[in-house]
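re: ur question from the group chat, yeah i did fold both. here u go
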Amino acid sequence: MGQSRAMRIAFMGTPDFAVPSLAELIAAGHEIVAVYSQPPRPRGRGQKLTPSPVHAFADSMGLPVFTPDSMKAPDAIETFRSLDLDAAAVVAYGQILKTDVLETPRLGCFNLHGSLLPRWRGAAPIQRAIMAGDRQTGVQIMRMSEGLDEGPILLSEIMDIRDDDTAATLSDRMAHVGAGLWPRALAAIERGGATPVEQVGEATYAKKITPAEARIDWSRPATEIDCHIRGLSPFPGAWFEGPDGTRIKALMSRVDEGSGPAGQVLDDSLLIACGRGAVRLTRVQREGKGAQATDEFVRGYALAAGTVLA
């Protein structure tokens, strides 16, 4: 594929997922005129203001960083307009962009999304795909419109979801595959060779994960609970309560053989009966402690066979 000429680009992204895309655009020789990211947030025990992963990486590369509280603010829009952009590349930025912004770059604003649209539009597509038991997902670059992830698709890469994928492992793989799409997409856009394809099919929405839904419901089938656990790992972490009320996160699991009343511990290595079948918890984290493999965990916190978890 031919490389486009160096384009004047604004990159807009916030989490770790977006960093490989920024690195790829730099490596492709594009001129990153500005990097936009969410404002620094208080983090850690000291609640020190900490820049986002994209902000920190951009700083390390000597790129100018803008962190407006809102891209709807007139001064933020005016600054964006002054950049004389060819295009904006957006990856998990975390702000809705209005028409005033979307129409500013010469060629438009383009977004990398972590699903096969229109399935899983919205905030948590990677977690929702695993939680729903999907076998495939993908990364797509779309031309942005005002609607939530409704724009036409320019480039796609389909990816399998593995039985041992967590939100973290799948996100990491998708971030790197998605980053590799940018040089091809921009080259095609620049030469007018990109053919936008409208989304077809019924849309589903990847709503933000709420703390309440992270709790494990042992009455569900083992296959669903396994997907639930892996889809929420490592954050926020699917959880259950021990007999003493201690909150325990399940960070990794697999479907295993066994049966009993839902929530019953079936052996001394955290095989738990579900509504149908059983799951083996292989990595867990007790409240206030670090993550541990099951054999290490049970030495410090006994969950004996026969215990029934709420």
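okk and heres the other one u asked abt
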Amino acid sequence: MEQLTKSARTIVTQCLNIKPYEKVLIVTDNKLLKIAQAIYNESRRINFDTVLLVMEPTGRDGAEPPEIVAQAMKSSDAVIAPTFYSLTHTKARMEACKAGVRIVTLPGVTEFSFTKGGLTADYTEVKRLSEKMFSVIKNSHRVEVKSENGTDVKFSVEGRKWKTDTGIIHTPRDISNLPAGEVCVGPVENSTNGIMVFDSFELSEGKLKLIVKYGKVKKVIGNAKPLLEIFEQLGDRAKLIAEFGIGTNPKSRIIGNTLEDEKVLGSVHFALGSNISFGGKNDIPFHNDGIISKPTVKVDEKIIIKEGKWLI
């Protein structure tokens, strides 16, 4: 319990730098109420204008929250969202940021992240590592990812803007996923080709293999019934390769939880579904990530990560 409180304090003070005069909103659901309560208690130590709002789980990562929640987010100075399903890639989150709100989301966060994992990190170090990687790849054009697990995929990032998720959210309109620690981009929509083999993917049991052509999944190999159901419900747009990211958090560990797994230093991840938060046009209520733990990454013919080790 002591470490849970300590990490909640890190979110409120180091990550968000909450001030006494701000309007702070904590959005949660009944599945993550214990964690939300810990964050609420720490925010209340600094800020008496902290509100805890509990809603029903939205049912899917990227699905929109109720309109009353969206309006409350937009009317706040800072939003902290430990929810079972992700609000990161929703219009509600983007509209709140446009209104000047700074936001951290914690979709599906576990107590492990608070007590032993990514939220025990020093976020000044996470920021340093994220910015170091960003400085190397920010103007890149082509990316190639391989791994001993069978991954062999190429894609274009021509004209796309890389983003850093450092966990330091002190400026209006800033957004971070906590635990934080990644550098990410939206691949050009029709450019991704090859094979992806995920060591961790929440919508499958065991490893998942995807055959990708012209930016979309063409074949699924593995026990991934929940993913196939989403494809059936939402159609081809759910099959788009929407994001590529590089983990930069030295405290994160692969535990089978996407929020924690995708931040592991030296790992990479790809996401399917919505890419509108990366400047794309695939507006769909679904966004889900898969992790490759020990990749080799080549950017514009230069290897920057070899079997999970940074070479920069």
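fwiw on the second one: The longest helix spans residues 123-137. DSSP finds eight helices and 19 strands in the chain. idk if thats what u expected
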